[in-house]
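so the lab meeting is tmrw and i was supposed to have these ready like two days ago... anyway. pasting both below. for each one the top line is the aa sequence and the line under it is the C-alpha cells. i havent really looked at them closely yet so no promises
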Amino acid sequence: QVQLVESGGGLVQAGGSLRLSCAASGLTFMGYAMGWFRQAPGKEREFVAVISWSGSSVYYSDSVKGRFTISRDNAANTVYLQLNSAKPEDTAVYYCALHRLLSRRASDFAYWGQGTQVTVSS
C-alpha cells in the first residue's frame, strides 16, 4: 500500500515563497524519480518539476524555471518543491508522483498523492 502525502500548501502573496513537501510510505523507493505536477481550474494537469533518485538530474517546466526548486531527502522518502517569486498563475492543486525513470509525462507516473492547494494572491 503506497501512500504519498503532500503538505505545505496554503495562501501566499504574489512574490512570496512557499515550500511543499511530499512524504512517501509503503514501498521501497530506491531508484525512483519523484516529480511535481499541478492542475488549475479549467486546465489539464501539467508538469512542474522532476528529480532523479540521486538528485543529479532535475527538469523544470518553462513556466517555473528560475523560480521553483525541487529537492529530495531519500532517507525521509520525501520530495520538496520550493516556490519562490510566486505568481497568481501558480495557483493550482499541486501533486507529487513517483516513477521508476525520469519523466515529464504524467501518464508515466505510477503513484500519486492527493494534492495540496496553493493559492497565490495578487
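ok protien two:
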Amino acid sequence: QVQLVESGGGLVQPGGSLRLSCAASGSIFRLTTMGWYRQGPGKQRELVATITKSGTTTYGDYVEGRFTISRDNVKKTVYLQMNSLKPEDTAVYYCAAGTSYWGQGTQVTVSS
C-alpha cells in the first residue's frame, strides 16, 4: 500500500534552485527514515540526503551545504530544497522510504 510520488523536477539553470517533493501514502512515512537518492547518466545511484523520523539528517558528500532535506509528518511529505545547482546535479532523483520503497523518480536537469 506504500506509494511514493516525486514531483518538482525540471530544468533549471546553474546556480538556480529547485524544490522536490515526495508524497507518501501508507503508514511507512512516520515509521522510517526517508531519503533522496539520485542517478545520473551512466552513474550508480548515490545518496543525496536522508532524514529520520525524528528529524536527524545526513547528506551526501557532493551536496552538503547546498541541499536541505526536510519532512512534514502531517502531510506525509519529504522535501529536498536544492540551491546553487550545478550541472553535475543533473540526475533522476528518487525518493525512498528506508531502502524498501522507492518512488518512480523525477528528472532534474541543470543546464544553461
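from a quick look at the 2nd one: The chain has a mean pLDDT of 94. Residues 38 and 93 are 4 Å apart (CA to CA). will dig more after coffe
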